[in-house]
Design goal:
The protein has about 400 residues and is mainly alpha-helical. Helix content is about 75%, strand content about 0%. Helix 10 runs antiparallel to helix 11.
């Protein structure tokens, strides 16, 4: 039941708390930033000190941890692991392909905080902070007020999926979430600013995605394709379609589509899509992932409000449709493969889902405020008419 408050654990928690405070302090009032950074650091600190018993594990997370530890035991550092050709070759052999980035992330984490499972988890906590900062900028690009963006940032950093998936388990999905958020922001900046610099950022982000989960590039390409074709100047943008279809072909090879047709295409794909959006059912969570039980209940409570808010955002924010399409295209893609339909695959879309959840709460608060103001105005008008003349 945990190792207690060891020096390495306290070091990791302290460093992440300070880094979180530094980032959040740029966007939030200091008391709020202190509170958020405390929560973000304390949850994994308490869990790994007193409650960690190895129950909540996936196969991949242990593999990443052991591969990172092996590379360090061989004498490689985070720098030499990428600069030494022999080290890169060994990394590719370990992971059986080019998707070496997350193993390197585990090397970096264990180099900083020691050869512990929790080392990468604490770094992932900080990744959620960076992702929140990225989506804060996305929200501003959509022309929401700064107060809305700040409130969303707090909501996102403390959102249930973010806290659970980043604070307990060592999985690559948090890094993928950050990279896709950066890709979406870079593309939005390019569209809005017509500057070549965002294209450079976008290219670097896509290269990074190639080395962690390459088919996400195809999801992003499909998102851009559909968003572009839905614009008013349809005929002109249609010229771009062949290029984006080529990108889809390169990152979704025919063999994948053959496999997809045997798993999901046809009448089953609709049910797989619904399953992807709603999984897991609170009463069917396995013991190894029992932490998902509470998350599943909250997800189902917010499911209808999230969809309603998503429809409202689609109607009022044309650029925001890019983000909503990213979720829809991604859900359609994962629905093609029954083995990829699960709550873990949904993690990379959490920023957009959290945005819809937050927007519903924001609309609810605005409506209550307007109702309150309307009620007070009626009372004042009644009192004014009741005064003797």
């Amino acid at each position: 039941m945990g190792e207690g408050l060891t020096g390495d654990l306290l070091l990791a928690a302290g460093v992440i708390a300070v880094l979180t405070l530094f980032v959040c302090g740029r966007y939030l009032p200091l008391p709020t930033a202190v509170f958020v950074s405390g929560v973000k650091a304390l949850i994994p600190l308490i869990y790994f000190a007193y409650f960690y018993d190895g129950t909540w594990h996936f196969l991949d997370d242990q593999t990443y941890f052991l591969q990172g530890r092996e590379m360090l035991a061989r004498g490689y550092s985070p720098l030499t692991a990428l600069s030494d050709p022999e080290a890169v070759t060994h990394l590719m052999v370990l992971v059986n392909g080019p998707h070496i980035l997350y193993v390197w992330w585990n090397i970096l984490a264990q180099f900083l905080f020691g050869p512990h499972y929790f080392s990468a988890v604490f770094l992932n906590v900080f990744l959620t902070v960076l992702c929140g900062a990225v989506f804060y900028k996305v929200i501003l690009r959509l022309e929401f007020p700064a107060s809305y963006a700040r409130a969303f940032l707090v909501f996102f950093l403390l959102q249930w999926d973010i806290l659970a998936w980043s604070s307990l388990i060592n999985l690559k999905d948090i890094l993928i979430m950050l990279l896709t958020a950066l890709a979406l922001l870079s593309f939005m900046r390019f569209v809005l600013e017509r500057s070549p610099l965002p294209l450079l950022y976008l290219t670097l982000t896509l290269v990074s995605l190639f080395f962690i989960r390459y088919y996400v590039i195809g999801i992003l390409a499909g998102t851009v394709l559909v968003w572009w074709l839905l614009k008013k100047d349809f005929a002109r943008q249609l010229l771009l379609a062949p290029l984006l279809l080529l990108a889809l072909y390169l990152f979704l090879p025919p063999a994948w589509m053959t496999q997809a047709s045997s798993h999901g295409l046809g009448k089953e794909i609709f049910f797989q899509f619904i399953r992807f959006i709603g999984t897991p059912l609170p009463w069917s969570v396995a013991e190894a992932t029992s932490f998902l039980t509470v998350l599943a209940v909250i997800h189902w409570v917010f499911l209808a409000p999230m969809i309603l808010a998503g429809i409202k955002l689609w109607q009022e924010y044309p650029m925001g449709r890019l983000l909503l399409l990213y979720v829809l295209i991604g859900a359609c893609f994962y629905a093609l493969f029954s083995e990829l339909v699960g709550p873990r695959q949904r993690v990379q879309f959490v920023p957009v889902l959290a945005w819809a959840q937050f927007h519903f709460l924001w609309m609810l608060s605005q409506r209550k405020l307007l109702t309150l103001l309307s009620t007070r105005r009626l009372k004042l008008e009644y009192r004014a008419t009741a005064l003797p003349t």
